[in-house]
Amino acid sequence: xxxxxxxxxxxxxxxxxxxxxxxxxxxxxxxxxxxxxxxxxxxxxxxxxxxxxxxxxxxxxxxxxxxxxxxxxxxxxxxxxxxxxxxxxxxxxxxxxxxxxxxxxxxxxxxxxxxxxxxxxxxxxxxxxxxxxxxxxxxxxxxxxxxxxxxxxxxxxxxxxxxxxxxxxxxxxxxxxxxxxxxxxxxxxxxxxxxxxxxxxxxxxxxxxxxxxxxxxxxxxxxxxxxxxxxxxxxxxxxxxxxxxxxxxxxxxxxxxxxxxxxxxxxxxxxxxxxxxxxxxxxxxxxxxxxxxxxxxxxxxxxxxxxxxxxxxxxxxxxxxxxxxxxxxxxxxxxxxxxxxxxxx
Amino acid sequence: xxxxxxxxxxxxxxxxxxxxxxxxxxxxxxxxxxxxxxxxxxxxxxxxxxxxxxxxxxxxxxxxxxxxxxxxxxxxxxxxxxxxxxxxxxxxxxxxxxxxxxxxxxxxxxxxxxxxxxxxxxxxxxxxxxxxxxxxxxxxxxxxxxxxxxxxxxxxxxxxxxxxxxxxxxxxxxxxxxxxxxxxxxxxxxxxxxxxxxxxxxxxxxxxxxxxxxxxxxxxxxxxxxxxxxxxxxxxxxxxxxxxxxxxxxxxxxxxxxxxxxxxxxxxxxxxxxxxxxxxxxxxxxxxxxxxxxxxxxxxxxxxxxxxxxxxxxxxxxxxxxxxxxxxxxxxxxxxxxxxxxxxx
Lengths: 345, 345
Fold this sequence. Notes:
With 345 residues, the first copy, chain A, is an alpha/beta fold. Chain A is built from 11 helices and 17 strands.
């Protein structure tokens, strides 16, 4: 199975997701600013993968910072963390990873120890991510019955994590349990993570799937052809509101209207108890050219204005359950999320 | 203003909509089979435009049919009508036009008169279509208040009709009344009629607009940034259920959920009293390559299966009003539609 982000020969190795599915290109990155650029350009994306990539970025930066004292080191590391933190505002996991790395740096007695511990912390986060995804899969698989047709959006698969995936992890675990599952994949404009990445992963796994454009999902939900919806998350507010790839809110409303369960699969590192509700989550606005162009080719007339919010917010009332590595959380989400975060194993 | 379909120099002249917005290419067609192919390939599309194009196709075919007697002529014309009727199953206007032309042929005393009357009937339908659209616009403009942000889907503009448009006709009429209107345009995958055609029309008219991908509409509806939705229709069943471009149902549910009015603008020729409910409307399935490819370029991995329903059905309970040339119809739609159709002026 593919590894989206890993440490190899003293560098961070990522698969360049802007090139998939046409080409399988790996980038070896040894400079934190280059890594920040790769995140901004979405060569690596997906909230859990961004968390691990950010941790490796700090580890790289820790070796790049010139510092004689721990104070100088922490000042230099502050710039590293700020640079990486400025790439993408919505994914909670990115900030969660940066905060965790910051604490490791602060607690180290000296610069050399700090550098070593930062690298081993990032390595640990890489390892943990796959274990967490497999736990999410185990918990979530119970929600998928034999013969289910499952709709997913964007890519919450191996490519959005270190390996295995969150939403696709749930589907993979159900398939590993011997259940027959058919996946409907939203193509997910503008950047087509569904058709480019999720379709590619499912073909590799031999899991049957049907690709649809984003505006077709409602048609299949209305006709009773979808048994449940499973998506990932970029940030979950304290009340259970979920920020995820643009289009997720629409699916949640359509599922609700048609009596179809709507599940969110995410590690507890996606939960942000300091954000009270979805309205407090910053929504990244990306370049309108992603909408007016596809693969560099202009598809809309010259002079048209386009909007490009990369995420939307799904109010918690539409969310049937949140599947985490700690178990399946049900409403009321306030206490359930607080318990899941505080209950560190 | 552009004319989408017209009679010129003994031929049917259409603007090739597959080439827009990059190129403004006109096709002069003098063979009914070529016209049927142009309809199938969506060089001309939009229910009202298909009605007029189908009528011209029959007029062309009437001159192509070799016949010594009226019986031979009607038999030949039957093949012409079958060929044109087999192009696209959902748009009611296509069949409405074919039935109207059939009646004209049957009532003519001889072949020569039939040919002449068929051509003048098609010319009359071209002229009527623009008048009807302007009447739809006048009635619908009252629904659009000054400062409204109006969401539309696909293209229900001049390019979907002979001229002026249905949904865009309502918007144009509101603008002509001096109201400030900002249009949000769904790009409308897979064939991008929103970004290619609606955006092009609104730029030409100088009406301010923002292009969004189909999965963004929900985000803007939830945030209160849309005051109403206006779309066209391909067929309206006797109970008010509406078949329209795939994605319309999704917008209707999202509008309903957010308390935003959802309007359908269509001529009475789109109403099909012989179809009881939306479930009885045939939904055209198009080539999956339209989903896996864009502009001839493959955008999904080799081997993925794709679905491509071209339309969906919006149950009448989500429809706030149906704007026709006879006036604005409100629920209960059963009697309102029957009255609108029977009340021939």
